[in-house]
Amino acid sequence: MRSALHTTRDRGGRKLASRGVLVLSTIWLALLTAAPAAQEVSSARSVALGSAAMSLARGVDAAKFNPANLGLKEFQVRAVELVGFGANISNNSFTLGDYNKYTGAVLTDDDKADILSKVDDAGLKLTAQADASALAVAMGQFAFGVTASGMADINLSKDIIELLLNGNTFADTIEVTGSYSEGVAYASAFLSYGRCVYQAGTRELAIGATAKYLYGLGVERVVELEGLAATFATGFAGEGEMIIQTAAGGSGYALDLGAALKLNDNYTVGARIKNFLSSLTWSKDAEEHGFIFSFDTMTVENMDEDYVVTDDYTVEIDNFKTNLPSLLNVGVANTSGSLLWAIDWEQGFRRAAGASSKPRLSCGVEWSPVAAIPLRVGYSMGGNRNTTFSFGSGFHLPYFFFDYAVVTGTSISGYSSKGLNLAITTGFYF
User: What class does CATH assign to 7-429?
Assistant: First the structure.
C-alpha cells in the first residue's frame, strides 16, 4: 500500500499548518465524504408523538415500528400510503436562537467563551436523517412497500471548535481524538406479516416480522483517525492520519422481529428488535482513501520552505460488509377513546450512525376532539439525540388522510430547536 502513496509538498498547506488548520482540513475531508443519510422519520404521526409509536402503529406504520401489530384485529387496516417523507438535520450544541444571535456578528471574547461553553466535552455532533416511502400498502395482516433510508453521524472534537474561535496559543495542543464520521444510504423493499397466536376474550397476543431486501446506495466510514498539532517555544509541530473506506453500491438483507399483547380494550404493550439480523455487502467501487501529514518545529522563518510532508492515496479494495445497528424498542399505549397516549423506551447496543448505546425515552398524546382532526404532542429525551418537543395534526376523511409534524427543542419555541425536523404522510383508506 505504501507504494501507492504519492508524496506532495504543498506551500499553501504549510501556511495553513502555521495556524493549526491542517488538523481541521482532515476533519472537513471526513465531513465532505459523508453519505446522505436517513432513519425512520417518515411517519408524521410518530414524529408528532415524539416517536412513541410502538404500541399505536397500525397498517403501514406497524410495518415500520412493530410488525406484530398487524396480527391484532384492531390494528389491521386496508390502506395505501402514497407519500411518506421525513427529514432531520441537527446538532447537539447550538439552537436557532444561537444561530440568529451570532451569525454575522463580530465576536467578543465573551461571545467566544459562550459559544465554546455550549459544545459538549465529547465534541460537536452533527446528524442527518431522511426517510422516504412511496406506494406502501397495508392489507390486513400484511404490509409491503419500498423505502429509501439512511443515516449519518459526524463528530468534531472540542479542540477543533476552540481552534476555529481562538486560533493557536502557546503550549496549546489540538487533537482530533474523539472525532468520527460514518454514513450509509440504501433503498429497501419490505414485506411485513403479523399473526395472532393466542386469544382469550379481548386479550390477544401476536408476533410478527418484517423482511427487507436492501440495495446499498453509498457508504462512508472512517476506520482510522488520529492527529494533533502543538505550539512550542521552538515552533509548531504536528502529525496526523486518516483512513476512509467508501463504496457506491451493494446489496443485503435485514430482519425485524416483534411481539404485541393487547391486554384489554384499552391498553396494548409491545416489543420490537429492529435489524435483528442484517448484512450489506458493498461490491461497487469499493475504495480506501488515506491522508497523512507531518511537520516538526516549523517557525515563521522556515514556513516558506518545503517543510510539511503530506502523503495521500486512493486504492481499490476487496468487497467489504457492514450491518445496520440493532435496536430494542418496548412500548405501552392507551389505544381507545378520544385521548390516546403512548410511552416508548429505545435501547441500542452500540454507537453507530442512527443508534446509541444510551437509552432514549419517548412519550406522546393524541387528542381528537373532532374525529377528523387529531391533535398530537410529544416529548423525547436521552440516547445520542437532543431533548425535543414535537407537535402535529392532520386531516382524516373517510377515504383520505394527511398528517404533518414538526419538532422543536427543549421548549415549544422554535428558537430552542437545534436543527430542522419535519415529516408529512398522505394516502388513502379503502
Answer: mainly beta
